[in-house]
TrEMBL record:
Pfam families recorded: PC-Esterase
GO molecular function, one term: O-acetyltransferase activity
InterPro entries for this protein: TBL, TBL_C
GO cellular component, one term: Golgi apparatus
Highest taxon, organism lineage: Eukaryota
Official protein name in the record: Trichome birefringence-like C-terminal domain-containing protein
Domain Trichome birefringence-like C-terminal intervals: 2-261
Family: Belongs to the PC-esterase family. TBL subfamily.
Amino acid sequence: MFVSLFCALKSASDGQIKKWRPVGADRGFTFLTYNLTIAYHRTNLLGRYGSWSGSDTGGALEALGFREGYRVDVDVPDSTWERALSFHDILIFNTGHWWWAPAKFDPVKSPMLFFKNGQPVIPPLRPDQGLDMVLEHMIKYVEKNARPGAVKFFRTQSPRHFEGGDWDQGGSCQRDRPLSIEQVEELFSVKNNGTNVETRLVNEHLYKALKGSGFIILDITHMSEFRADAHPGSAGGKKHDDCMHWCLPGITDTWNDLFIELLNSKYQG
């Protein structure tokens, strides 16, 4: 979405663009003529996380048999975006893929271990429970610390289209046309519990957490579920089919069309 937005703005600018990154940003650009800066702050879980190893002196987690994993602080924002709130007037958040990623957070070998107020949450939480806690705290943090008048969006989950297995199980995405309604339901229905089930599962948590908040929901999921043909696939330069990222031009341009419409409605309304 960020690259699509940059391309759209660049095509409408006079070429006066400077590479510049606010603190914590992975990349950023300033359109000098308009004094407009856009930036991408990469964060996998919204909350702060890092590797964790058990102590020789023991502790609550060690007593339960945990020796290593990943510590996730549900009430501490990731440093990559923590200070972004004091700079940006328009914010777009999203999270999702890493919460259902056994290849990254193996529930036995490298589990997510959630902490609150600096202490482990006991009994340990499942990832979906941890997601709820992170969303609760991060939404409150943003609403408390964002600039006055800041417009806050939360983008729903971007669907993957792996068929025949996950990315590390030989899954692929070789379709050359959009899916039918029936095919979408077969691939994404929570009842089927398929490879791509995370898409709608994460959204259920997002909708619940955002209810009553000051965020505008940027719902790009269902329109994107049809576009199994819009991923790089075997042309993505990876050892496996890339069925998660999107080709440009493509569906992310439509996401930005929706974003601009919602933004216009906000300011005109």
